[in-house]
Here is the input.
Amino acid sequence: MPTVLDQDLAPDQYEIIVVLDGPDEETARWLKSLPAVEPLLRVVEQAHRGLAAARNTGLREARAETVLLLDDDLMCSRRLVRRHAEAARDNLIAMGAVPVSSDSPRAIAAQWVRRSVEARTLRLATIGPQWPVDIALCANYSAPRKLLLSCGGFDETFVGACEEFDLGIRARKAGAQFRYLPDAVASEIYVKTAQAMVRRDCPARGANEVRLCRKHPEFRPVSALSRFNQGAWTTRTLRYAAARAPFSLEPVLAPAFRASEALTRLGVGEKIAFRLLDFRRGSALYRGAVREAGSWPSFRGEFCATLPVLLYHHVGPRQPGAYPFLTLSYAKFERQMRWLRQRGYTAIRSADWISWKRGAGALPRKPVLITFDDGYADLVQYALPVLKDYGLTATIFIPTRCIGKTNEWDDGTWALLPLMNRAQIREWAAQGIEFGSHTRTHPDLTTVSRERLKDEIEESARELESITGSRPVAFAYPYGCFSDEVRDCVSRVFDLSFTTREGINCLGDDPFLLHRLEILPNDNLATFAMFLAWGSRPLTALRKRMAIRSRLQAAVRRLPRPHSVSPSDVKITRRIGT
Here is the structure.
């Protein structure tokens, strides 16, 4: 409080409204006893209703056109209020830095928050406010009072977390712009314990994230819950176990954390302590979300669905001169489709995936997306009838200028083979097959001019729509090649796009850089099953790792002589290669 009173503004240029949310007679007496602060300071008391209600009371009581939100654990710089006042504009929400004060305890919880805040401050100073992490109207944010009231203020049904994100999203929809003020600093004295973070804050955050995503479906792909299926397989496995277990893992995790925290005072174990705290926080957050969702199946269906996307080219007999690794035999393709049906997979279209990401539709228990690049005519004879027999659908990516012609982009390299014609595309589109764009002429989009890039993408969408009668929503990058510019151009026309990078897709993945699993002629059913389950070929990954190790060892052997490889070189080689 003293630092808020000690601002480099005259007392008549700003006001301080302190809202006491719940009975606190001692604090109220102390505030009212402060000398010479009227009318600068006003104290408003109310029954305990939560942070959102307290902030709404402050908004209603304020007389100024711009309001600055502060918490009671902040130490404000003398220019804080002036800096926010100078930045005030219609529809502008300004945010300042909130570093963790050096007066905070040296506990792991405070250190964890300090690292997080330092990373955020660096990002804000480098690239500015980003959606969604910086749109929360919390401490050291200022905004036009009229804007916040016109948005309805804070939603008081959010108790314990996410009310600041909810209002930020609504303000953003109303046209608000966000700006970072690096010299508007309010340091936080962080005294919260790890126990309080894990037992109270994180479960409340998880539950309210579910409610926030249901209220604002566009927040789903960027919420903390969307990252449930991201990370290494070991991390994902532990995450699943912690979220699904009928009991909390805290009785085991808390003592282990306390032991590691004690070791940090001796200068060791800090990395383990941070990892344990991360895992405890994540476990508590996801368990809170599962409870709010109603059950694990409900939470999984709403936030944790994964999508393997299969990539094929040719199906049928291998054609003389054709690229040998792109043709799958009819027998193998039929076995794979039968295997999918027997194992309970349901084929969806790319439009179904984007609908689920937006919260507008549900997915089957085990979804799979089957895609074909280039639209070769052999699909009509060999692949599409199999899909129809097994009740499966697919998405075919077409280079529109080559419809009814051949794979002209391979001229001089591989055999030219016929592609689907307009009549075939219309016929199978009427039977539920989805068609997406593969540009007009199948170029490497990273090598073309900006004008041609725009033409290849926009015109292919128009040409495909003129054939199928519906706007295409999906795009596949030719050769799997893309850049930031290519991705941005695609995102202005389509709803999602596919690369050739291996992996399985989840809610938090970039919809314009989706992974696919390319099925090769020598893949057997065991490899096919592992591919679908893990998103990569284990043997291929092992061979790549061994190849990298071999190259590193060869590079070490080529190091300048006369002295031999040092022990440190060998350690580096082992660490990188394993």
